[in-house]
Write a structure and sequence with these properties.
heterodimer, A: 325 residues, alpha/beta, Rossmann fold, 2 domains, 13 helices, B: alpha/beta, 9-stranded mixed β-sheet, 5-stranded parallel β-sheet, 28% helix, globular, binds zinc ion, EC 2.1.3.2 (chain A), amino acid binding (chain A)
């Protein structure tokens, strides 16, 4: 694996499968009475959040603490960091403090890449979401959720998603989740279809390793998993689509549409869900919908990524098992 | 000693000749000219060009003297072989009155490295609402003939029409920064394959092309002259070609960086590549070269845009747009146009001196290298190869995309009205 995790495109098929397999091991820790491994004891991880995201930060924090890392949360928001230089300043402060890894969330696409490549800091950088660019751990947890559901936790070990048909629906243009998922799912052998109104598909998408369709109903019967992307109501004012009602009618997932999906197919959502526009309550609450699992899987995936970037090459559970004896 | 003999220079790339300068003028051009009483510059097969003229420079003074001043900018210009630069109006305060343009003009004269011809703003404060006092700027000591809201587009069609009409009274020209503002809201880079992947806001080619199309039609309708700044797309080339074939009085410029660099560079997220208009695709680059070669694009202009280090050493979205260009322009043109066989050195003289001087009505510049003409000259060692080292720049800012790149050619001497401003690559 590379030293940093900036983009899902950085991962080879074997890297990705290794992370998913390691996450399965990590998931077992959650079933124990004491949900903690000593793996990163004495290491310091900084969660550097230039953009609010309580969910993602808590998920990383839980992962770090389960691996016994010391955690620093740095939330920089508002006008104090509106000047561009603050990223560099902050990086150099963290470098001086001897931080062992930086988890960064930033509203600017490419900020984690700059952090990792500009010589401002030496520690491994994990991208926790940058602008409309990438959110690789989200894609990994989504793939992990799909593999568990479509193949099974144990049967899935060592497996990729070859031949699975995955559909992503909604605001692809502004979605780092979509970009990361297209890259990773393609690497894992899946066939990806993006469904959105043409206004929410980026110019240049033709180079992506996926299909694009404007017709959700045509795609649903051929989907093993359907991932609904968040659509912000503000997009309506920027004329990306005429009305919320029209959007729901054409691209929303309701019970009737869900019934057109194959019996085994799952419904996914990166959360937080806004019930109504892109997904109805009926679908959100159905047992096909994996939103809650995705949250739990997020912790396992982030443990796996931290472990592999910071820990080492042995199986993650070797040490704890030895210690248990 | 007021006489200088430049010996054995290939004038405009032709056979070696001697050029004798006496005072501010060229006294003779020929072979075997006497060196008596003259200081001799051994040119030894170097290329002698008329002093270069840049129709598009940002000198930042007044207001952003931390980026550049008239002094540092004109020293950079002399280093790059320029004897005249047109200074864009987007300073603080904006160059929209006779007072500001005269100040900039006088600073250029005082420092003496390069003539500075101020460009006046088209509209008050570059706000696009109300015409600035174009006539007063023209009648000032600065004698402004080029007007531009560069940095911003004159997007209101009526204001643009009026400006085009109004400057006819004194032979002025409106230089348009073609950028449809609504289509480029949040724009960070060229819209296309790379922006889709990087998740950076797209600056679509059509935002440039639609304004150019509108403006050439306006120029035709009112019988005026329009100049298109930093044309950057293959589609823009097509529109300008069509307009010229129709007899519309349009001229266009391309920057050195748009002749060499593509949006693939943005994959580094290094803001040194952040520029407006953005770096485009390989296809655009090739179309621009071809258009410069066939004359569809009239001139090369640098869009020299200095920024202090801290405005570039940050994340892409927070970074300022622009790159410096005066000191590398000729090398990039040699690399992309001469070494590729697209232009001769005589063509370079046209695209970088004769034509820009003509478009901007810069008296005394862009003149033939012949007896009786003002001795504004540039000597180029075209055989030189070396890496660009920004540490040696005269510009106050170092935001060059070429750091560490090998580029051909080096300006060794620049003469402004017979006085050397650059000698053996060092500022005089
Ligand atoms: Zn401009």
């Amino acid at each position: 694996m590379k030293r940093h995790l900036i983009s899902a495109a950085d991962l080879t098929r074997d890297d990705a499968v290794l992370i998913l397999d390691t996450a399965e091991e990590m998931a077992r820790v959650a079933d124990r009475p004491i949900k903690k491994l000593p793996t990163l004891r004495g290491r310091t991880v900084c969660n550097l959040f230039f953009e609010d995201s309580t969910r993602t930060r808590i998920s990383f924090e839980a992962a770090e603490k389960r691996l016994s890392a010391d955690v620093i949360n740095f939330a920089a928001k508002g006008s104090s960091v509106s000047k561009g230089e603050s990223l560099k300043d902050t990086a150099q402060t963290l470098e001086a403090m001897g931080v062992d890894a930086v988890v960064i969330r930033h509203s600017a696409s490419g900020a984690p890449y700059r952090l990792a490549t500009s010589g401002w800091i030496d520690a491994p950088v994990i991208n926790a979401g940058d602008g409309t660019h990438q959110h690789p751990t989200q894609a990994l947890l989504d793939a992990f959720t799909m593999r568990r559901r479509l193949i099974g936790p144990d049967a899935g070990l060592g497996q990729d998603l070859a031949g699975r048909r995955i559909t992503l629906v909604g605001d692809v243009l502004h979605s780092r989740v979509a970009r990361s998922n297209v890259d990773l799912l393609h690497t894992l052998g899946a066939e990806v279809t993006l469904v959105a109104p043409p206004t929410l598909v980026p110019v240049g998408v033709e180079n992506w390793p996926c299909e694009v369709s404007y017709d959700l109903d045509a795609v649903l019967p051929k989907s093993d998993a359907v991932m609904m992307l968040r659509v912000q109501r503000e997009r309506m004012n920027a004329a990306f689509f005429p009305t919320e009602r029209e959007y729901s009618r054409r691209y929303g997932l309701d019970g009737e549409r869900m019934a057109r999906m194959p019996g085994h197919a799952l419904v996914m959502h990166p959360g937080p869900m806004v019930r109504g526009m892109e997904i109805t309550a009926e679908v959100a609450d159905s047992d096909r919908c994996t939103v809650v699992e995705q949250v739990a899987n997020g912790v396992s995936i982030r443990m796996a990524v931290l472990y592999l970037l910071l820990g080492g090459n042995e199986p993650a559970l070797t040490h704890p098992r030895t210690e248990e004896k | 000693m007021s006489k200088i003999l430049i010996r054995g220079a290939r004038v405009l790339g032709g056979e070696p000749q001697d050029v004798l300068i006496d005072g501010e003028f060229i006294e003779a051009v020929g072979t075997g000219l006497s060196a008596e009483g003259a200081e001799v510059v051994e040119a030894d097969g170097k290329i002698l060009l008329p002093g270069l003229v840049d129709l598009h420079t940002h000198l930042r003074e007044p207001g952003r003297e931390d980026s550049e001043t008239v002094l540092t900018g004109t020293r950079a210009a002399a280093s790059g072989g320029y004897t005249a630069v047109f200074a864009m109006a987007n300073t603080f305060p904006v160059a929209d009155t006779a007072g500001v343009v005269e100040q900039v003009y006088r600073l250029g004269k005082e420092h003496g490295y390069c003539d500075v011809q101020p460009i006046g703003a088209v509209t008050v404060g570059l706000e696009g609402k109300k015409l600035a006092e174009l006539g007063a700027m023209h009648e000032s000591a600065a004698g402004v003939t080029v007007f531009s809201d560069d940095g911003k587009c004159v997007d209101d069609a009526v204001i643009m029409r009026r400006a085009l009409e109004y400057v006819k009274a004194f032979g002025g020209v409106v230089a348009q920064h073609a950028q449809e503002p609504r289509l480029t809201e949040g724009a960070q880079m060229n819209e296309g394959v790379v922006s889709a992947e990087l998740g950076l806001g797209g600056w679509p080619a059509v935002a440039e092309e639609s304004i150019i199309a509108r403006d050439v039609l306006l120029a035709e309708h009112v019988g005026s002259r329009v100049h298109i700044c930093h044309l950057s797309t293959a589609g823009s080339v097509e529109i300008v070609r069509w307009a010229k074939s129709r007899g519309i009085d349009v001229t266009a410029e391309v920057t050195p960086h748009h002749l060499l660099l593509t949006d693939e560079m943005v994959r580094s997220y290094n803001p040194v590549y952040k520029v407006n208009p953005p770096l485009r695709t390989e296809r655009d680059v090739l179309a621009l070269r071809e258009a410069l070669a066939d004359g569809t694009i009239d001139i090369v202009a640098t869009d020299h845009a200095p920024h202090p280090h801290e405005d570039k050493d940050c994340e892409w979205a927070a970074a300022a747009m622009g790159m410096v260009g005066l000191e590398t322009a000729l090398s990039v043109v040699q690399r992309t146009m001469v070494d590729t066989g697209l232009l001769t050195w005589a063509d370079v003289a046209d695209r970088m001196s004769f034509a820009p001087a003509r478009i901007g009505s810069a008296a005394g510049h862009g003149r033939p290298v012949s007896a009786g003409e003002p001795a504004n000259l540039t000597l180029v060692d075209s055989a030189y190869r070396g890496e660009v080292d920004p540490a040696g720049f005269a510009s106050r800012s170092r935001n060059t995309p070429y750091e560490g790149r090998e580029l051909p050619g080096r300006v060794t001497h620049t003469f402004l009205r017979g006085r050397a401003t650059l000698v053996d690559g060092k500022l005089a």
